[in-house]
């Protein structure tokens, strides 16, 4: 103690360590001073120390089964601040936060499964939405670091893939049914003051590429039966800039290569091309429709237009495929 008696920061850190040893890691208010000291370090530009303290706070909370929704948002703000001040983002730190995102999303999944339909569940739904957005933001940041950092350690890359696969497998959705892939292509996704657009803007090609690589399904639909293609083209502002068109074409090609159906219909019975009014975008999608035209898709749409009964007649595994192309047409006809 004599060696640090004139260093207030070191004294405070020592006090935190002593406090943890005395109170134990399960003490309810143990993390509050840790988070506060991390914020003080960040204010003085000691981001490395802030990260270490907040990682420890995350560990303590999750070890005790406490939600970390606010902590994940806090890390998002920290990383944005670091970027603004031109501090390098460290991939291992981002991976640690993403790992915490996986744990937190698994925890909230259990809470969602235990929801009482008759109770007021707004707080749980808000928490789920916030966790999904924080996770998306962290994944997007990771893609930026991976792109800028060459070469990437194979161990780090494998860990990123593993964690993103776990996130995708949880299939968490916003209250409107949007998946992470929907959000990654959503040009209207709000980004708050901490999540600067130059750091993380959507639609994000690299995030889409990573999600697809890790198993995200391009044909998943939200509660309005919009797939990622519907969201991508439906959130393009008119008139689109050249960069917007280039981004859209890249993502479009990635989604279609991963198996997305350009002729899938939403609740309104509209394909992605029929959902928009921008001629330039329509013509681009039309070119893909011509190139990707498949006999099976034409047959599925014909079943819908002819109001033919197919459930229990065609093989079970074909029913979702037919519904993707015509279920809404059938329901309206009936």
UniProtKB/TrEMBL annotation:
The record's Pfam families line, in alphabetical order, gives: Ank
Q: Matching InterPro entries, A to Z?
A: Ankyrin_rpt, Ankyrin_rpt-contain_sf
Q: What SUPFAM superfamilies does its record include? A: Ankyrin repeat
Protein name (record): Uncharacterized protein
Provide the species name: Phlebotomus papatasi (Sandfly)
In the record, what lineage is assigned to the organism producing the protein?
Answer: Eukaryota, Metazoa, Ecdysozoa, Arthropoda, Hexapoda
């Amino acid at each position: 103690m004599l060696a640090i008696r004139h260093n207030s920061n070191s004294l405070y850190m020592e006090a935190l360590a002593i406090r943890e040893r005395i109170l134990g890691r399960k003490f309810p208010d143990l993390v509050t001073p840790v988070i506060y000291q991390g914020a003080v370090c960040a204010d003085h530009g000691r981001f490395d120390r802030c990260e270490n303290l907040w990682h420890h706070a995350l560990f303590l909370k999750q070890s005790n089964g406490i939600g970390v929704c606010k902590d994940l948002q806090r890390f998002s703000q920290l990383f944005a601040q670091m970027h603004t001040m031109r501090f390098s983002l460290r991939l291992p730190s981002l991976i640690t936060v993403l790992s915490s995102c996986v744990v937190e999303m698994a925890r909230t999944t259990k809470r969602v499964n235990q929801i009482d339909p008759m109770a007021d569940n707004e707080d749980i739904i808000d928490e789920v939405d916030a966790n999904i957005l924080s996770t998306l933001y962290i994944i997007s940041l990771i893609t930026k670091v991976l792109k800028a950092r060459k070469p990437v350690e194979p161990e780090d890359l494998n860990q990123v893939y593993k964690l993103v696969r776990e996130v995708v497998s949880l299939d968490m959705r916003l209250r409107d049914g949007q998946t992470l892939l929907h959000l990654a292509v959503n040009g209207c996704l709000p980004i708050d003051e901490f999540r600067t657009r130059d750091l993380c803007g959507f639609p994000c090609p690299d995030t889409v590429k990573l999600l697809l690589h890790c198993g995200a399904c391009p044909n998943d639909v939200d509660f309005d039966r919009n797939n990622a293609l519907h969201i991508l083209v439906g959130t393009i502002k008119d008139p689109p800039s050249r960069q917007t068109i280039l981004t859209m074409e890249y993502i479009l090609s990635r989604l279609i290569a991963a198996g997305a159906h350009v002729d899938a219909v939403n609740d309104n019975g509209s394909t992605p091309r029929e959902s928009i009014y921008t001629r330039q975008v329509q013509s681009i999608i039309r070119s893909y429709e011509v190139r990707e035209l498949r006999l099976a898709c034409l047959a599925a749409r014909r079943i819908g237009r002819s109001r033919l009964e197919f459930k229990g007649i065609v093989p079970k595994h074909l029913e979702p495929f037919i519904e993707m192309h015509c279920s809404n047409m059938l329901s309206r006809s009936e």
